[in-house]
Amino acid sequence: MRMRAALAREIGQLTIEEVELDPPHTDEVLVRMRAAGVCHSDLHTYKGELRAVPPLVLGHEGAGVVEQVGDGVTRVKPGDRVLINWIPACETCPTCLSGRYNLCERLAATTFRALLPDGTTRLKTLDGLALKHYLSVATMAEYAVVHEASAIPFPADVPFEVAAVTGCAVATGVGAVVNTARARAGRPAAVLGCGGVGLSAIQGCKLVGCNPIVAVDLMESKLAFARQLGATHTVNAQEADPVEAMRTLTGGGPEYVFDSVGSEATILQGLFAARGGGTVVVMGLHAVRSQVQISPAALILQNKRLLGSFIGSMNPRLDLPRLIELYRSGKLALDKLITKRYALGDLPQAFADMEAGKVARGVLVFGKD
Ligand SMILES: [Zn+2]
Ligand SMILES: [Zn+2]
């Protein structure tokens, strides 16, 4: 079938054009997309800065309606509303069996290379160029063919745009707090960087009862979003020394620091600010390109923990429906994360707004019917 999609034919080249999508294979489903979240990883990917390189169709957050299923599909049926999960864990490898679904051994060979879990693709341009599916899902298109493990059903009273952002930003931010740090009520926390992931970590801290919750960013616009979503204090790192501010506002340093930036500067700020025995969780994908020199003495003598968290250490089939239920019961304000909606053709503007800090999370919204 033909459909419109956002794609990178080459590194640095972003176009919205008609492409060809083949039908789903045995264990795959065809989803008519209704919403797709705009994430920094999509931007870094079309610029060729991450592991998956063009030519590919972008997008890894999304939600839509199942239109067609392969003959081996058992988890969803046509008409189901599904949110897209870019961790299509095999559930049979030793890592999955040990409960670390986010580290499934199949991901390295397929998902991170922008292939479907069987190692192939269903996409091509009208002039015959084979296109890969970013993170096995390629949600910035009118339709997506995904493995059934990437399609997580959700109830009809949840807006598509809310379900869309749950699969990456929310899972990463809330999961870092709940799963990776196992943060506890009453303990002080700080969040570095207030984009979609950082704002979700702030909501996660509020959910578990951390107090105070200090948000740090360089942009006043993002700090305003942080206050709306649960930060008790905000620090503009252009105006104040973030380490000193975090230590003062938390009476000696946060017990938990959640770093959604992952730069050398923020990782060190987190380590210096955390109180003795505290935990620093790094979750920003920028960390992939960072090099950090750390004095082991700071970790040992202060008994600090430095943890990595990949997509919130989540088990997708367990955690994604739980996050949706937390939204339905009013405990996560996921709708407040979405501050701007765009048509597919406005993706360049959505990327520009994201880089300028104008949005908490921007979402592409596809034709309503
Ligand atoms: Zn993402
Ligand atoms: Zn696995």
Please describe what this structure looks like:
With 369 residues, the chain is an alpha/beta fold. Helix content is 30%, strand content 24%. It has helices spanning 40-46, 94-97, 105-109, 160-180, 196-208, 220-228, 242-249, 264-273, 296-301, 316-328, 334-337, 347-355; strands spanning 2-8, 15-21, 28-38, 56-57, 63-69, 81-84, 123-125, 130-133, 143-147, 151-153, 189-192, 213-217, 233-236, 256-259, 279-282, 305-308, 338-342, 361-365. The strands form three sheets. Strands 3, 5, 6, 9, 10, 17 and 18 form a seven-stranded mixed beta sheet that branches. Strand 7 (123-125) and strand 8 form a beta hairpin. The protein binds zinc ion (ZN) (2 copies). One zinc ion binds at residues 89-90, 93, 95-96, 104-106. One zinc ion (ZN) is lined by residues 39, 41, 60-61, 168.
Mean pLDDT: 95
Order of helices and strands: EEEHEEEHHEEEEHEHEHEHEHEHEHHEHE
> Quick one: how many beta strands?
18
Distance between the termini: 19 Å
The SS-based structural class is: alpha/beta
Q: What percent of residues adopt helix (DSSP H or I)?
A: 25-40%
Low-pLDDT stretches = none
